[in-house]
Amino acid sequence: MARFWVCVAGAGFFLASLVLHSRFCGSPVLRNFAFQISWRSEKVAYRLDLDWPKYSDYFTGTTFCVTVDSLNGLVYVAQRGDNIPKVLVFTEDGYFLRAWNYTVDTPHGMFAASTLHEQSVWITDVGSGSYGHTVKKYNTFGDLVQVLGTPGKKGTGLNPLQFDNPAELYVDDTGDIYIVDGDGGLNNRLIKLSQDFMILWLHGQNGTGPAKFNIPHSVTLDSSGRVWVADRGNKRIQVFDKETGEWLGEWNNCFTEEGPSSVRFTPDGKYLIVAQLNLSRLSFLAAPPVGSIGDCSVISTIQLPDQVLPHLLEVDRKTGAIYVAEIGAKQVQKFVPLNSYLLSFGL
Ligand SMILES: *[C@@H]1O[C@H](CO)[C@@H](O)[C@H](O)[C@H]1NC(C)=O
Ligand SMILES: *[C@@H]1O[C@H](CO)[C@@H](O)[C@H](O)[C@H]1NC(C)=O
Ligand SMILES: *[C@@H]1O[C@H](CO)[C@@H](O)[C@H](O)[C@H]1NC(C)=O
């Protein structure tokens, strides 16, 4: 169980010291790190919520993804491992509610897509067993309600639809579904499906040119109708028009060291939060409101300790809280915006 202790707030930057109780060692080992979170703009400021979850003993596997149903105040976490619950459901204030593992093999990404009429969570599964290579929809109690793809069979086929290591998905308020497929494997594609699961458009080629991918790992939408894809193997983010699928541009100047693993916007749409796995870093990039995406510019970063390995993250659209699924530290951590920044959401 790793815990941060944010102790000093300075002018324009925060100094924090980390106390890591290693859960991998027999006896708790105390290690001290010092790290600095620098803000070029003081408006983007978060602190670690030490109170979330109330008990971290529920993280018994490798936590690959997290998603937030902000309508109902629920946080879903999916973890991998043998003989453990695969999906954990918490309240947004950190209380554990329930868990399930039936029909979940090897979770990779997830997305909570609740409406006023229905609570649901989607999971991408990269397993090789009978539930693998699918994108599945569950209700909040873990009942399987929809399966996309051909269960247990990887492939590049479109009819029937076959995935190969589907990485993540994003469901628009209209019900349209954007899937990145995948996390290695044969496919390197971005697919838009209608709410009745018809293919609306698709970019399906492996490569380095425009609208081609190498490990498209995470996908999100902004409020001006653009689709943002973390094209991790190509060390860039590519942007598309959500209606037509037209390629709008790419950002690569921020990712010379390592490609982006996860992409999500802050609720005010001003920043794109990007996780870089091996760098153990979260970056806040200035998001262009409309039109040309221009160049990428890092406004601030949260540097996590080595080996924490943030894989995928989610932002609570109501509160602005960031949840980070860390495959190295084997936990999910919650960062909450400081008051000054929260006010700027107009919440
Ligand atoms: C499912 O989770 C339960 C604990 O919640 C565990 O006892 C069981 O072994 C798990 N099953 C699998 C197949 O992982
Ligand atoms: C995709 O292309 C990259 C180089 O652009 C290569 O490293 C990778 O192996 C290719 N993947 C597939 C599935 O062909
Ligand atoms: C992270 O490091 C591991 C081990 O060196 C490597 O296999 C993996 O490809 C790296 N991932 C990224 C996103 O760079």
TrEMBL record:
Pfam families: NHL (PF01436). Residues 1-21 form the signal peptide. Keywords: Glycoprotein, Repeat, Signal. Gene3D superfamilies: TolB, C-terminal domain (2.120.10.30). NHL repeats lie at residues 204-243. The keyword Repeat applies. The keyword DNA-binding does not apply. This is NHL repeat-containing protein 3. The gene is NHLRC3.
